[in-house]
Design a protein that fits this description.
Largest sheet: 5 strands, mixed
Structural class: alpha+beta
Strand content: 5-15%
Number of helices: 54
Shape: globular
Number of strands: 31
């Protein structure tokens, strides 16, 4: 590599330096086609002059004659100008010319830069660049008027031109030119090689292998065209010329995005169908394809539908209709569900005569709903899968036809299997079969296609092993197995049509000797080995065999989860994967009911913790059945030898098939489980979205309330209560904060909070419809109670409304705790800073709470891609994000189209415009285009028809006709009687295609005949009759219409099924765009608990041993707080033995802020309280999650064996019998393991572990501080046996205890309490001793007249602290050790009960020592 680069050259930016041979000037070659590189020649020459002069001054070269130099410069400028003009005409810069080998370089001349010149020449020659010292110009006028040597004719006129250069230099130059001469192109190079004694056959092989040099001409031509386009000065500037492709893609401004906007097909359809090729089919072919797809999708969905078998045919017809709507008419799912409902229902007319009312229908309609909304989405996805399936199938058919045309073959297996293939796996099996069976023919087809398409292919590769075997005589031994692979598979699939195996008349080894192939297989052993491998491969590749095996695995497959060695160590009983560590015998049906379990198993397998095995139930019997089919019933030595060989081959094939099937089943199961879990998330999301705005008493459903929102944030002492007043429409009109909202208590002489009156004034002034409340901690419950108490005490009420009795009433304002999952994402986002600039995050949080109550669906829609940050299922992280996002999008589309979008609101507000992305037919691109076009039309939409444009009025088209047909009924325009062009039906769910039906029904309801209708419409327009119906308030009359007669006439006369549509029209005429969503759902107790505490039903359960912080200790109970903020209480009956009830007082053991372990006995999620126990018996019983397993589903034997092996291993490591003590804190750890275990836990937590000193010792390791652990040695006395715990436990010969729990509470916990007290002291420093002394020094420098001291931890001796002090700025820092002992601190051998006494003791000791020094 050193020869390729000038290692001594100075690295520049993107410019290469070369030297002018005439002047020795340094000139720069720019890399690019910018204007500066083309036009700024004058500056370049000035730079050359300056550099040349500087070189002369520095003595590197001898100055030449000034006139010659000026003349050469002038000629060089002219040549450069001419070359630049030529390059501009060609559209190629120097770098482009250099890359394709067309750049002419200046001819080398004698230079004073010989050493530099040769260095560069060697570098360029080594890099293979053509003649770097060739002259720049392309004409024949060389330097000083002499013709220059052209590269193409170098060597031809060597003796014709007289050279002034020395012979040595000329010879060197000639060598350079010969080496760097540009190679000839294309066939010229090959012709040149003919002189090297290559015959025509060899040349042909060479061309076939390496081409003739013209293979990439198309790329060069394309590059030239692109360069011409780039340098075209008349080309208009485009976005892609300014922005990076990633930026354009992010903003959806690429050419593909623009094409989607312009194409009149629903955006989601275009994106989903983009990978597939549109087919040009005849009408008959299209009908056959549609029928095939309907059958295929029916077979996929029908097994999951619990419908009567008689409905299968109507069900398939319904599927066919839906596919026609999607593929032929481009109708999206919401449109089909809303306006083609009749095709989703199977209606049967049951005769029901009614003689008394002969004018009424004499039948009753019994309807069965065949398909739901979720089913339509599944049909949509299956349609895409069928497209991919069909494309693969068609491509395979095309390939096989090409093979058949070339080789005149006939393959019954292919012809039988491809038409009945129903899955991608089966088509892939057939493709593998074709590639295996016809590999040689495929290569020929590929070469032929390459030649036809003008693409050169390499010569055919060497013959493969199976190809060689198939063409060899040895293949006769494969036939000797007596049954083809396909026939064997047929017999396995259909035992009643079994084909029997025939034995040859010779033993396998004898037959192999008969068919030795000298070219490939020299011995009978080789023949037999190759035959076995070939037949096993044929069995493995057989598409029918694979289909049989796949069916068998799916019906008889069982799943076992086997832990690995890594999993044995990592998956402990409290690990989330322990649930399936020893899981066995799970059927595929079991997995289907617990999709998250299988996905977690697969994730654990990826982490190397378990292996997921899929096996056949009764695999041995299955294998014996196949062996029986493949074997013969003959009794002879020949038959036995062949049967034995067949068994060996079957084993080989089954092993290969097992790997293929297991992989396929796993992937299939993973995909189905992901889909199932994603659909579950969609259902949860749908429930969140399916909420109307909060409805205060007396207001219509769907009306947005005015909300006063509160939060106290995290609820800390420093956190104020902030509020925001949000009007309908989401506008924040006022905000503020309160400090104290607690009511007074005369009995306790507690005054009322200072801000209670301000709150009352705010409520009376604003009169909110509801008060929203949420927060980040359980303190939100306290605020909720305070607000509720104020409202109750002062009887605060909202606005008046008229009740059903006609009286004006006012109801008390309701306080609602609101789901804040959207507000938490919003209040710190960039979007909130743009929406509410200058407001604090908590105010934005309140605004988001209020807007959520006004419209949950709008808040979720505004999240965009951040929706994935919300938790819908605890296992949703196991789903690919694209798959989850697609399902969540379906849920949003359903609800948005159910509720409809006010087009005027969407045009005027970007917040409301977020909903347009999910309207049927639209998407983010088409929605943005629609808004842009409407704004260009004036910003107003008077009727739905305006969206498709009107050339006569100059109205631009916002959407195409097909997209408009999809979205029209879901975009409504509020009806205004004063607007002459307003159409009442534009404010309804009625589609414009059904407006005539609505108008007909209105006329019939008003009993207006056709002549009057014509007069009315001529005078007032098409919507006049409906306007009249609304104006006169006669909407109820439509209930008198008999819609069955309408539906019957439409079906008979127009072949339109409109029964459900007519019901929709009747409902919309009476109540346009009625709110169909569920009422606003207030949070359940469990949901509120999870939101404020962060604990779910799984993370906090009764029976768990948890860490709690002591707040206060009393004789009859201890008040605690859980980490999640829940208030805990330990009754005296659950105290440890020896505490309370005549023993040690609880307050002497448990101090405020002390962290202790307790068992959760009861949990009240509504009141956020918990009952705890500290009793030894309760703590000894470890928590274990309830996992119900059927007999045989859990490998108890393996679990027990692993536990025994772990104990044995521990014994081997420690060199002693492993002790097992029945205590919840006992762990079979060594010191390192104990420290690793305690690392993430709280200060004061501990483990009991075996001691290396013997069976009469134990060790307690407890966490003093982060990365500081103390190991306490315990001597056991009075032991019943060597494995029991001693009745007397001694520490250091000084402390004695009767049992472990007493030792823990009175010794370890007592010391931990003192450590906590020390570390919470104001004089404590978190740093090291050196850092503390540095702090003292800095303090003394700032306060030289004062003395100062501080405490810090001694990390070298756990349980010790330093008291660092500095008496004056001039003295060095001193330090005294402080030892923590139970319930005290030891300083200078003096015990002090608390930190205050330690400080006083230190001052006393220091004063005493100072006075002693003065005396002496």
């Amino acid at each position: 590599m050193a020869t390729l680069f000038d290692l001594d050259a100075e690295v520049g930016s993107e410019e290469d330096e070369s030297y002018d041979e005439a002047t020795g000037d340094v000139r720069k070659k720019t890399n690019g086609t910018g204007d500066a590189a083309v036009d700024d020649s004058s500056e370049e020459e000035e730079d050359d002059d300056e550099e040349a002069e500087r070189a002369v001054r520095e003595g590197f070269i001898v100055d030449e004659d000034e006139e010659d130099r000026e003349e050469r410069k002038q000629r060089k400028r002219e040549r450069k100008k001419r070359r630049r003009e030529e390059r501009e005409e060609e559209g190629l810069d120097e770098e482009d010319l250099d890359l394709i080998g067309e750049l002419e370089r200046p001819a080398p001349t004698e230079s004073k830069f010989k050493r530099l010149k040769r260095g560069h020449r060697e570098e360029e020659r080594a890099r293979g660049i053509d003649d770097i010292f060739a002259d720049e110009d392309d004409d024949l006028d060389g330097r000083d008027g002499r013709p220059s040597i052209r590269r193409e004719i170098a060597g031809e006129f060597d003796d014709f031109i007289e050279e002034d250069e020395p012979d040595e230099e000329r010879e060197q130059l000639q060598d350079d030119l010969e080496v760097s001469r540009r190679p000839k192109k294309g066939l010229a190079a090959i012709v040149g090689m003919n002189a090297q004694a290559l015959d025509e056959m060899e040349l042909e092989d060479l061309r076939a292998a390496f081409g003739d040099g013209t293979e990439y001409d198309w790329a060069l031509q394309l590059q030239e065209a692109m360069d011409d386009e780039q340098v075209d000065p008349e080309k208009p500037l485009e976005l892609k010329d300014v922005f990076e492709p990633s930026q354009l893609a992010e903003k959806m401004l690429t050419d593909d995005d623009n094409l989607i906007r312009a194409t009149d097909v629903p955006e989601r359809f275009q994106l989903a169908r983009k990978p597939f090729t549109e087919l040009n089919l005849t009408e008959a072919e299209a009908a056959d394809r549609a029928k095939e797809e309907a059958t295929w999708i029916t077979n996929m969905i029908w097994p999951k539908k619990r419908l009567d078998i008689d409905l299968k045919e109507p069900f398939q017809k319904a599927i066919g209709h839906i596919l026609g709507f999607m593929n032929d008419e481009d109708y999206e799912v919401p449109f089909i569900f809303q306006h083609r409902k009749d095709y989703l229902i199977h209606a049967v007319r049951v005769p029901k005569p009614d003689p008394e009312n002969p004018t009424l229908p004499q039948y009753e309609v019994q309807a069965t709903k065949l398909l739901k909304l979720d089913d339509l989405w599944e049909v949509f996805e299956l349609d895409l899968k069928f497209r991919a399936f069909s494309e693969k199938k068609d491509a395979l058919r095309k390939t096989f036809n090409a093979i058949r045309e070339q080789s005149s073959i006939k393959d019954d297996i292919f012809e039988d299997m491809l038409p009945v293939a129903v899955s991608m796996e089966e088509v892939q099996d057939i493709q593998d079969y074709v590639h295996f069976q016809y590999s040689a023919e495929l290569k020929d087809v590929n070469i032929m296609n390459a030649e036809v398409n003008g693409v050169q292919k390499r010569a055919r590769a060497a013959t493969g092993v199976h190809e060689k075997m198939r063409a060899s005589r040895a293949y006769n031994v494969v036939r000797g197995f007596g049954l083809s692979a396909d026939a064997f598979a047929q017999s396995a699939m259909e035992p009643t049509r079994r084909k029997f195996t025939e034995d040859p008349d010779k033993r396998p080894d004898d037959l192999a000797d008969d068919f030795i192939d000298a070219d490939n297989y020299n011995t009978g052993v080789q023949v037999l080995r190759a035959a076995k491998a070939m037949y096993a491969e044929e069995l493995t590749i057989s598409p029918r065999m694979r289909k049989f095996m796949r069916q068998t695995y799916f019906t008889q497959g069982h799943i076992d989860c086997v832990r690995t060695e890594k999993g044995l160590r990592k998956i402990s009983e409290d690990h989330p994967y322990y649930e399936f560590k020893y899981l066995r015998n799970q059927t595929l049906g079991d997995i289907g009911r617990k999709p998250e379990l299988f996905l977690r198993m697969m994730k654990a397998e990826e982490e190397g913790l378990v292996e997921v095995h899929i096996r056949l139930d009764n695999a041995r019997r299955f294998k014996e059945g196949l062996q029986k089919i493949l074997s013969t019933d003959n009794f002879s030595e020949i038959a036995d030898s062949w049967n034995k060989l067949r068994g060996e081959v079957l084993d080989m094939a089954l092993n290969k098939l097992d790997k293929i099937m297991v992989k396929g089943v796993k992937e299939n199961l993973r995909s189905e489980c992901e889909n199932s879990l994603a659909r579950r998330c969609r259902e949860v999301y749908s429930q969140k979205l399916d909420q109307a705005p909060y409805k205060p008493i007396g207001m219509d459903l769907g009306t947005e309330p005015r909300v006063l929102a509160f939060t106290n944030g995290s609820g800390g002492r420093e956190d104020a209560t902030v509020w925001a007043w949000v009007e309908d429409g989401g506008k924040c009109m006022e905000h503020g904060k309160f400090g104290d909202l607690r009511l007074g208590d005369p009995e306790k002489s507690r005054p009322e909070g200072a801000d209670v009156s301000k709150f009352i004034e705010l409520v009376e002034r604003r009169k909110p419809d509801v008060i929203a409340l949420s927060g980040f901690s359980t303190e939100t419950r306290v605020l909720y109670k305070d607000l509720q108490a104020i409202i109750d005490k002062y009887d605060l009420r909202g606005l008046e409304y008229e009740n059903d009795d006609g009286h004006d009433v006012r109801e008390k304002i309701e306080v609602v705790i609101v789901n804040d999952e959207v507000a938490r994402l919003y209040h710190t986002s960039d979007r909130s800073a743009v929406d509410l600039p200058g407001l604090p995050p908590l105010i934005r949080y309140c605004v988001a709470l209020a807007k959520y109550m006004q419209s949950p669906v709008k808040e979720y829609a505004a999240l965009g891609k951040d929706i994935l940050s919300i938790s819908f299922d605890s296992n949703q992280n196991l789903i690919p994000q694209d798959k989850l996002r697609k399902q969540l999008e379906y849920a949003m589309i359903d609800i948005v189209n159910l509720a409809g979008v006010n087009i005027s609101d969407a045009i005027s507000s970007s917040y409301n415009a977020n909903l347009l992305d999910y309207v049927s037919g639209l998407g983010p691109r088409k929605a943005a285009s629609l808004i842009q076009t409407v704004n260009r039309n004036g910003g107003l939409v008077a009727t739905r028809e305006e969206l498709v444009g009107n050339p006569e009025t100059g109205t631009l088209q916002a959407v195409g006709p097909r997209v408009w047909a999809n979205c029209a009924s879901f975009l409504f325009i509020e009806f205004d009687q004063s607007e002459a062009v307003a159409d009442y039906l534009d404010n309804t769910r009625v589609h414009p295609e059904d407006y005539d039906l609505g108008r007909k029904m209105a006329a019939d309801a008003l009993e207006i005949d056709e002549e009057d209708v014509k007069v009315e419409t001529d005078d007032y327009g098409q919507g006049a009759i409906v306007r009249k119906l609304i104006r006169e308030g006669q909407q109820d009359k439509v209930n008198d219409l008999i819609l069955e007669l309408y539906a019957e006439q439409l079906e008979v006369n127009f072949n339109q099924r409109k029964r459900a549509t007519l019901e929709t029209i009747r409902a919309e005429l009476q109540n346009p765009y009625e709110e169909l969503r569920r009422n606003f759902t207030e949070m359940s107790t469990d949901d509120i608990f999870t939101m404020l505490s962060g604990e779910t039903a799984d993370s906090l359960q009764t029976g768990m041993i948890i860490s709690v912080s002591v707040r206060r200790a009393y004789a009859d109970h201890i008040e605690c707080r859980l980490d999640c903020g829940v208030e805990g209480m330990v009754p005296s009956s659950d105290y440890p033995t020896g505490i309370g009830m005549g023993g040690v007082e609880a307050r002497n053991i448990y101090q405020p802020h002390q962290t202790i372990q307790a068992k959760l006995v009861e949990l009240d999620r509504k009141r956020f309280t918990a009952k705890l126990s500290l009793h030894e018996d309760a703590l000894r019983k470890p928590f274990r999650r309830d996992t119900e397993h059927e007999p045989g589903e859990w490998d108890d034997a393996q679990e027990e064996a692993d536990k025994r092996a772990a104990n044995k291993h521990q014994d081997a490591v420690t060199g002693r019998a492993q002790r097992v003590i029945k205590h919840p804190l006992f762990r079979a750890f060594n010191s390192v393991q104990a420290e690793e275990f305690l690392g993430p836990q709280n200060r004061g937590d501990l483990v009991i572990r075996p001691s290396s000193k013997g069976l009469d010792h134990l060790i307690i390791t407890w966490k003093v501080a982060d990365n500081v652990f103390s190991h306490i040695d315990i001597l056991e006395l009075d032991k019943e046996n060597e494995f029991s715990v001693g009745r007397t436990l001694k520490i250091g010969g000084k402390y004695s205890y009767s049992d472990l729990d007493e030792l823990i509470e009175l010794h370890v916990k007592a010391m931990a309490k003192k450590v906590e007290e020390m570390m919470l002291d104001e004089k404590y420093q978190n740093g090291s001793k050196a850092q503390t002394e540095q702090w003292l020094t800095a303090y003394m420098e700032a306060n030289p007249k004062r003395a100062m001291y501080a405490f810090c931890i001694n990390r070298d001796f756990p349980g010790y602290f330093f008291l660092c002090f500095k008496n004056s700025a001039s003295q060095a820092c001193a330090a005294w050790p402080i030892k923590v002992v139970p319930n005290a601190f030891e300083l200078q051998k003096n015990a002090y009960p608390n930190m205050a006494s330690v400080k006083n003791g230190f001052k006393t000791l220091w004063t005493s020592m100072a006075q002693s020094r003065k005396r002496y």
